[in-house]
């Protein structure tokens, strides 16, 4: 069992290379072992490209060794046709006799069918090696398929005395109030590149005019998700610049007569459970994960609706004395650390 864990750990290392690029596919790593030596390995390419098993098999120089090898995969090989053919069929085609799987795929298109197909073809299949770690790696994917909503990360920076913004005066310049340091800000841009969507409420856009893209890191821009009940956000705001796909949640039907470039309008009822309605629309749009960056009302509404999976909080070395109070969240502190002179903590429900 220990030797199996060793190679599944390598699968997990490889799979992480796909963070932020594989969605809606999961991140998967694959390792092929012959006579105690790794002869091939791979991870899932950006969406539309090869799956991990394909890349691992392609990397093997001497294909004649495959029918005497073991393939390790962090997630059950797929058994359906999507953008690419089934990986289970590829394993059978190359007559790989032994398959070790980290965790079964919860996706209804797979859900044990890959393992079943391999066993029916005569493969010796072992399932459940480092299952907890494999499930944690694809927490976004599993949350999406099991809870029918995106994996939701809440993020904010607050002062030592518990404020996330200063008290704004009328006509104040539309720009963010920085509480965290430049290293924390760069880390946030890295996080943005790892998620499929980024959400803010109306007041955050009006007050800060944020771009909501990835600038201090290299990576893919997330889909912008904007809450604007009565279309108060000016059309000149950066979020409507057309550079990134944007989903606008509003109750105003006039939004359809004010079409903006690269903006999808989603009509919802703001008198009902807004967070749940948002999750329903994002699920239909196959957005598996979002990071919510403000403001206080939007963040608190998702907390109150119990629709969140992680809260990431920076505490800056600053005191405001008055302003906008930080949201209140209860949960378990996963870990805490310092980012230069700021402190940072992650809380889970």
From TrEMBL:
Binds 1 zinc ion. It comes from the Bacteria. SUPFAM superfamilies: Cytidine deaminase-like, Dihydrofolate reductase-like. Its EC number is 3.5.4.26, 1.1.1.193. Keywords: Hydrolase, Metal-binding, Multifunctional enzyme, NADP, Oxidoreductase, Riboflavin biosynthesis, Zinc. It catalyses: 2,5-diamino-6-hydroxy-4-(5-phosphoribosylamino)-pyrimidine + H2O + H(+) = 5-amino-6-(5-phospho-D-ribosylamino)uracil + NH4(+); 5-amino-6-(5-phospho-D-ribitylamino)uracil + NADP(+) = 5-amino-6-(5-phospho-D-ribosylamino)uracil + NADPH + H(+). Pathway: Cofactor biosynthesis; riboflavin biosynthesis; 5-amino-6-(D-ribitylamino)uracil from GTP: step 3/4; Cofactor biosynthesis; riboflavin biosynthesis; 5-amino-6-(D-ribitylamino)uracil from GTP: step 2/4. InterPro entries: APOBEC/CMP_deaminase_Zn-bd, CMP_dCMP_dom, Cytidine_deaminase-like, DHFR-like_dom_sf, Eubact_RibD, RibDG_C, Riboflavin_Biosynth_HTPR. Its cofactor is Zn(2+). GO terms for molecular function: 5-amino-6-(5-phosphoribosylamino)uracil reductase activity; diaminohydroxyphosphoribosylaminopyrimidine deaminase activity. Converts 2,5-diamino-6-(ribosylamino)-4(3h)-pyrimidinone 5'-phosphate into 5-amino-6-(ribosylamino)-2,4(1h,3h)-pyrimidinedione 5'-phosphate. In the N-terminal section; belongs to the cytidine and deoxycytidylate deaminase family. In the C-terminal section; belongs to the HTP reductase family. This is Riboflavin biosynthesis protein RibD. It comes from Urechidicola vernalis. The lineage of its organism: Bacteria, Pseudomonadati, Bacteroidota, Flavobacteriia, Flavobacteriales. The gene is ribD.
């Amino acid at each position: 069992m220990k030797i199996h864990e060793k190679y599944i750990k390598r699968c997990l290392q490889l799979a992480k290379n796909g963070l932020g690029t594989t969605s809606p596919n999961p991140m998967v790593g694959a390792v092929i072992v012959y006579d105690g030596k790794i002869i091939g390995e791979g991870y899932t390419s950006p969406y539309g490209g090869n799956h991990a098993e394909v890349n691992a098999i392609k990397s093997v120089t001497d294909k004649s060794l495959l029918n005497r090898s073991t393939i390790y995969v962090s997630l059950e090989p797929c058994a359906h046709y999507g953008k690419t053919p089934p990986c289970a069929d590829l394993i059978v085609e190359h007559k790989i006799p032994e398959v070790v799987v980290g965790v079964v795929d919860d996706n209804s298109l797979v859900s044990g069918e890959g393992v079943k197909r391999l066993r029916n073809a005569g493969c010796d299949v072992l399932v459940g090696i480092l299952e907890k770690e494999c499930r944690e790696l694809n927490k976004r994917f599993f949350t999406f398929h099991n809870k029918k909503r995106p994996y939701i990360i809440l993020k904010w920076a607050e002062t030592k005395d518990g404020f996330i913004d200063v008290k704004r005066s009328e006509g104040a310049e539309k720009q963010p109030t920085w509480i965290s340091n430049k290293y924390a800000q760069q880390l946030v841009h890295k996080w943005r590149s790892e998620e499929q969507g980024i959400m803010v409420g109306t007041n955050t856009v009006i007050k800060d005019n944020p771009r909501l893209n990835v600038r201090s890191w290299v990576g893919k821009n997330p889909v912008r998700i904007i809450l604007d009940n009565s279309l108060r956000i000016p059309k000149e705001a950066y979020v409507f610049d057309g550079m990134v796909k944007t989903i606008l949640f509003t109750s105003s039907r006039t939004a359809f007569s004010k079409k903006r470039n690269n903006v999808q309008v989603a009509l919802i009822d703001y008198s009902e459970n807004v967070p749940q309605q948002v999750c329903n629309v994002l699920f239909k749009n196959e957005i598996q994960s979002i990071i919510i960056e403000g403001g206080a009302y939007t963040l608190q509404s998702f907390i109150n609706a119990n629709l969140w999976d992680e809260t990431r909080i920076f505490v800056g070395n600053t005191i405001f004395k008055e302003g906008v109070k930080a949201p209140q969240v209860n949960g378990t502190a996963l870990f805490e650390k310092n980012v230069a002179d700021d402190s940072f903590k992650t809380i889970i429900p």
